[in-house]
């Protein structure tokens, strides 16, 4: 099995977001709930995936979901 030596732990993802949602995200960062936008988005996505994990439970049998 070939292992990629220069693989990254994270990927850059670009997407469109409504201004009101971005403003709310920035407010969470400003008041110190999150250190930055990336942390807030990673947390939200992790929670979303965990919330819907049972929907694809059979597909991921034997796999472990881990967020670092």
Coarse structural class: mainly alpha
Number of strands: 0
Rg over alpha carbons:
16 Å
Average residue-wise pLDDT: 82
Shape by Cα distribution: globular
Report, as a whole number of angstroms, the end-to-end distance: 24 Å
* Number of H- or I-type helical stretches: 2
- Regarding quaternary structure, what we see is single chain
Structure description:
This protein is mainly α and 68 residues long. It has a domain at 19-52. The chain contains two helices and no strands. It is globular. It starts with 18 loop residues before the first helix and ends in a 17-residue tail after the last helix. 0% of the residues are buried. The mean pLDDT is 82.
Q: Any chance you could write out the topology, listing elements then pairs?
A:
Layout: H1 19-30, H2 37-51
Key phrases:
mainly alpha; 2 helices; about 70 residues; about 0% strand
Summarize the structure.
This protein is an all-alpha fold. The chain is built from 2 helices and no strands.
């Amino acid at each position: 099995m070939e292992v990629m030596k220069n693989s990254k732990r994270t990927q850059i993802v670009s997407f469109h977001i409504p201004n009101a949602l971005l403003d709310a995200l920035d407010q969470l960062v400003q008041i110190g709930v999150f250190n930055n936008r990336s942390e807030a988005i990673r947390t939200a996505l992790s929670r979303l995936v965990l919330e819907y994990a049972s929907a694809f439970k059979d597909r991921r049998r034997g796999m472990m979901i881990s967020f670092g």
